[in-house]
Each structure stands twice: as structure tokens, then as C-alpha cells.
Design brief:
Layout: H1 8-11, H2 14-33, H3 35-38, H4 44-59, E1 64-66, E2 82-85, H5 101-113, E3 115-119, H6 125-136, E4 140-141, H7 150-159, E5 167-171, H8 174-183, E6 187-191, H9 200-217
Parallel strand pairs: 1-6, 2-3, 2-5, 3-4, 5-6
Helix pairs in contact: 2-4
The structure holds magnesium ion.
């Protein structure tokens, strides 16, 4: 379901199948384990849907969250081999090559001690790639696959052969950056977006994220 509309479509792609298989396996296990009690009481379908939602929801919660990248304590990166940075609304203003001076200074500090790479889902990244690499001095990894696709992780590992546990992802979107990191066992650091979204699909995605998190806080 890769279209030219924006990031949200990817959430509905390959990951959905993977989650469904996982949910089904857990559901079958629980159903069999509790079968003397559950038969006729809990319908397998409801159990399966509930687990599916739980797995998805668990994936959008970061290890830590911060107001912006400059608040991230650098000691968190100790022992990690690769730091992945989202671009839009994490380091740069959305769909631009504009960066705040304090953010740039912070990135320079990180870059001295750690191997870093930028990964973006933006469709304008090809156009901005060279400028961004020049500003940051960090390469931008371009791939036909987008976050949170597992195929992106496989592609990334060809250049950066580290296990997910040795990576950190820093990003502003739960459905793409955080889900991608959690799926691949990375440390996930969520930052608040620098500015309002400019793309319609991302505006919608942001609203869905906020509503979901707000609802979960009620429990
Ligand atoms: Mg972003």
C-alpha cells in the first residue's frame, strides 16, 4: 500500500500482516491453554483482535521522550553503535533544509562520538539529500522502503551491520519512527515536533496518534 500520499499508508502495509500472525499465534496459545474455561465463553475472534490491538499499541511507546533533541542526555548513547535520526520535525523544519542552531550544535557533538545516519520517509528527500548531508556531515540513507517497514531495516543492515539492540532511533512520529525502532529492538527516543505538519496525511497521522495516546492515558 505504498502511495505518494505520505507516511501513514506504510503502517497499513507489511507490518499489519506480521502483527496479525503474531496476534493469531498468541491467541491460539491462550485459547488452547485456557480451553477448559474459555470454550463457548471467549470467542477466538475477539481475543485475536484484542491481542492485535495490544501488540500494535505497545509498539508506539518509546523508551524515553524529550521536548527536543538537545534535551537528550548523551550518556544514553553509550555502548550503541549507530544513531538513526529522522529528519523532518526532528532535526529540520518539515519539508525544508532549515535547522535550528542549537540542534545543529548538538548533532555535531553526537557525531564526534557516534556513527550516525539519517532516515526519512519524506518524498522530497531525494531533492534535499545533498543539502542535508552538507549541513550535518551525516549521510542520508535513501531506500525504496519506508519506516516502519522491516525491509528498510534489512537494507540498512547491509551498510550498517549492527543488531537492532546496538541502534538508537530518534524521531517525532510514533507510527513510523518509534514503531520501526521497537519492531527492531532499538532504543527509541521520541521528540516533540519542531513545527506543525505541512502535509495533510501527516496532519491526520498526528491527530490519530494524539487521540490514541490520550485515550490510553484514561485507563
Ligand atoms: Mg518526522
Amino acid at each position: 500500500m505504498v502511495n505518494s500520499q505520505g507516511e501513514f499508508a506504510f503502517v497499513l502495509d507489511g507490518f499489519t500482516m506480521e502483527i496479525k500472525t503474531k496476534a493469531k499465534n498468541i491467541c491460539n496459545y491462550l485459547y488452547e491453554a485456557g480451553s477448559p474455561y474459555n470454550k463457548g465463553k471467549v470467542h477466538r475472534q475477539y481475543l485475536y483482535k484484542g491481542i492485535y490491538i495490544l501488540i500494535f499499541v505497545a509498539g508506539i511507546f518509546p523508551t524515553r521522550d524529550f521536548k527536543d533533541v538537545t534535551r537528550i542526555d548523551l550518556s544514553l548513547f553509550m555502548g550503541k553503535e549507530l544513531i538513526l535520526f529522522d529528519i523532518d520535525n526532528t532535526l529540520f523544519y518539515p519539508e525544508s533544509t532549515k535547522i535550528r542552531k542549537d540542534i545543529l550544535a548538538w548533532v555535531q557533538k553526537v557525531k564526534k562520538k557516534h556513527r550516525c545516519v539519517c532516515v526519512s520517509n519524506s518524498f522530497s528527500i531525494q531533492k534535499r539529500k545533498d543539502a542535508i548531508e552538507k549541513i550535518l556531515g551525516i549521510s542520508v540513507f535513501v531506500s525504496p522502503y519506508k519506516k516502519p517497514s522491516r525491509k528498510l531495516f534489512t537494507a540498512l543492515q547491509k551498510t550498517y551491520p549492527y543488531p537492532g539492540e546496538k541502534m538508537v532511533i530518534v524521531g517525532d512520529m510514533r507510527f513510523t519512527d518509534i514503531l520501526f525502532g521497537n519492531k527492531n529492538k532499538m532504543m527509541t527516543l521520541l521528540v516533540s515536533p519542531l513545527a506543525p505538519e505541512v502535509l495533510f496525511t501527516l496532519k491526520v497521522s498526528r491527530i490519530v496518534e494524539n487521540v490514541l495516546v490520550w485515550m490510553l492515558r484514561l485507563f
